[in-house]
Amino acid sequence: MSIGFALDHTGGGASVTPFHGETFCPLYCNTSTCVVHDGSGLKPQAEEEEGGEATPSDGGGAAAAEDDGDDAAGVAADEAKLSEIYGRLGQIGAASAEARAATILSGLGFSTEVQNGPTSALSGGWRMRVSIAGALFIEPDVLMLDEPTNHLDLEAVIWLQEYLKTYPKTLLLVSHDRQFLNEVSTDIIHFLSKKLHYYKGDYDTFVNVRTELAKNQRRAYEASAAKKAHMQEFIDKFRSNAKRASLVQSRIKALEKMEDVEDVEDEAKVTIHLPEPGPIGRPIVQIEGVTFGYDARNPLFSNVHFGVDLDSRVGIVGPNGAGKSTLLNLILDKLRPLSGEVRRNPNLRIAHFTQHAAEQFDYRLNSVDNMIKLFPGVQEQEMRKFLGRFDISGPLALRPLKFLSGGQKSRVAFAKLAWSKPHVVIMDEPTNHLDLETIEALILALQAFKGGVMIVSHDQHFINKVCSELWVVGSGEVVKYPGEFDDYKNEQIAKRKAAGASL
Ligand SMILES: Nc1ncnc2c1ncn2[C@@H]1O[C@H](COP(=O)(O)OP(=O)(O)OP(=O)(O)O)[C@@H](O)[C@H]1O
Ligand SMILES: [Mg+2]
Predict the structure, then answer these.
(1) Spatial separation of the C-alpha atoms in residues 326 and 292, rounded to whole Å
(2) Distance from the CA of 235 to the CA of which of 217, 328, 337, 359 falls in 20 to 30 A?
(3) Ligand 1 atom nearest 328 alpha carbon
(4) Alpha-helical segments (H) within 108-244
C-alpha cells in the first residue's frame, strides 16, 4: 500500500526529512483520539513559566499578583507580566480565536446551533469533526492527520483540502483519498519493502515518477541479465578449449565483478472484474414522485423523480444525514416511500456494497467456503477459479478470513457482489477501507462494467472517474446537479467561504 504524507507548506519545495533523526512531539490526530504534546505553544502561561506546576484551572499565578498589589516594584512586575500576557494572547491570536473557531467549524459543516450545543449530543462522525476542528484551531508546528476524510461528507472534504492547502506549517497526512492527496501534498513518502522512499510533488507526480523509475530499472536489469547470459554462454562453450583458456578466465573474472542490478519489485496488482449482466428492458429502475421520511410529518425529501438504466453512472452527494443511504435503501426495496413509487424491472438484479460489506462473512471460514455457503451447490473448483479473478487464489483462498487484510476481505466482498451478475451496482461509501490500488482497480472495473452504477462517496477522484451525473440530496429534495463535478466543487468552496465570513 502506498502512503502519502504531505509535507512542509512553507516553501512548496522544501525538503523535509522527518524520519532522519528529528524527534517529533507534535499534535497527533487519528480516528479516535487527538492529543496535544509539547511544542504546540499552547500550554497555559503559568505552566510554562512556573515549571509546569500550574494547570489551566490553577489560579496560583493570579493570586501571587494580588498579594503584591500595593508595592511599587510589584506594580511594575504586574505591568510587565500583563504586557507579556497580552503579547502572548496576541501571539496565539486570542482576539480572533472565536472568529477563527467559527470559520473552521462552519467549514466542517457545523451549523450555528450545533456549534453552540453540547458535544455529547453529537454522533461519532461529528465528534471526529470536532477533533479535526480542534487540531486545525491549535495550528501546531507539525499537524498529523490520519485518514481525516473517512468520517466527512464530500462538502467537508472539499473545505478541509482548501484549508490545508494554505496551512502555514508542516502537515503529515495519511490518506487513501487520491484527489485529497493531490490537492494538499507537496511531498510523498512511500512505504515499500520496509523502507521509506521520498518523492517530490503530489500523488499523481509520484505515480508517474515511480512508473518511469521502474521502467528504467527494468531496462537496466534486462540489459545486465542479457550481458551476463552472453558471457556465461561464452564461458560454457570454451571452458575446455585450451587456446581460449585465458579469455575464459578473464570473462569469469569480469562476470564476478559485474554488479547485480535488482529487478523491479512487482507490487501485487489488484484486479476486479464485474461480469456482463446481459440485456434487460428499460427503464430498469424508475423513481416517481417519491416522498420519504422516517417521521411522516418531517420528510427527508419530497417528490423525487429519476430513472436508472444500464448506462447510468450516478454519483450521490450531500451532507451527512441528508438521506443518501436512505435513498439507496428505497431503491433496494428495504424501505417503502410515504408516497410515490419505485418501479423496478421484475428481472432486475441489484448488488449492494457498503464499507461494512466484509462483515457479512463468517471470519472463521476461508473465502471459498464463505462463497459456497452464500451460493450453495457451486463446485469448489469453480468458486476458486472465480475468486482468482479477484486475486484471491492459491493459499490465500484457503486462509480463514480473519487472517486476510482489509483490502483482501474487500476483494472477497467484490467477488460476492459480482457472482450474482448484477444489472445495477449500488455502493455506499465503498472506498473508506480500501487502499489506493484497490480503489484504482474498482474504478477500472466500474468503468468497464456494462450495467448501471449508483454511488454515494466523498472521494472526489472516485466520483470524477466513475460518475457522469451528480444527484444532490439535501434541503428536503433530491436534484440532479446541472453542471460538472468541478462546478459542484467550486460552488461548495464558495458557499463555505461565504458561510464562514458571515459568522
Ligand atoms: N432507521 C432509521 N430510523 C429513524 N431515523 C433514521 C433511520 N435511519 C436514518 N435515520 C435518520 O435519517 C437521516 C438520513 O439518514 P441517512 O443515513 O440516509 O443519511 P446519509 O445522507 O446517508 O448520511 P451519511 O453521510 O452520514 O451517511 C439522518 O438524520 C438519520 O439520523
Ligand atoms: Mg449514509
Answers:
(1) 9
(2) 217
(3) 18
(4) 112-116, 124-138, 154-165, 178-184, 203-238
Q: What is the residue-level pLDDT of the chain in tens, covering all 503 positions?
A: 223 333 323 333 323 333 333 333 333 333 222 222 222 222 233 333 333 333 333 333 332 223 344 566 777 777 787 778 777 777 666 667 788 888 888 888 887 777 777 777 666 667 778 888 888 988 889 999 988 888 788 888 998 999 999 898 999 998 889 999 999 999 999 887 788 889 999 999 999 998 898 888 888 888 888 998 998 998 899 888 888 888 889 888 988 888 887 777 766 677 888 999 988 988 899 999 999 999 999 999 999 999 999 999 999 998 888 899 999 999 999 999 999 999 999 999 999 998 778 888 999 999 999 999 999 999 999 999 999 988 899 999 999 999 998 778 888 999 999 999 999 999 998 888 788 888 999 999 999 999 999 999 999 999 999 999 999 999 899 999 999 888 998 898 888 777 765 55
Asked which of 137, 170, 193 is the last residue of a domain, the reply is: 193
**In angstroms, what is the span from residue 429 Cα to ligand 1's centroid?**
14
Q: Are residues 229 and 370 in the same domain?
A: no
Is 321 a pocket residue for ligand 1 (Cβ < 6 Å)? yes
Whether residue 477 sits in one domain with residue 331: yes
**Dist CA 135 CA 144 (whole Å):** 9
Residue 153 C-alpha to ligand 2 middle, in angstroms?
Answer: 9
The answer as to whether 20 is a domain residue is no
CATH code of residue 477: 3.40.50.300
**Residue 34 CA to its chain's centroid (Å):** 18
Is 460 part of a structural domain of the chain?
A: yes
Q: Determine if ligand 1 sits within 6 Å of the CB of residue 320.
A: yes
Asked if residue 198 belongs to a domain, the reply is no
| Strand arrangement of the beta sheet that strand 301-308 belongs to | 301-308, 285-292, 339-344
- Asked if 318 and 225 sit in the same domain, the reply is no
Domain that holds residue 411: 285-501
Give me ligand 2 centre to Cα 320, in Å.
7
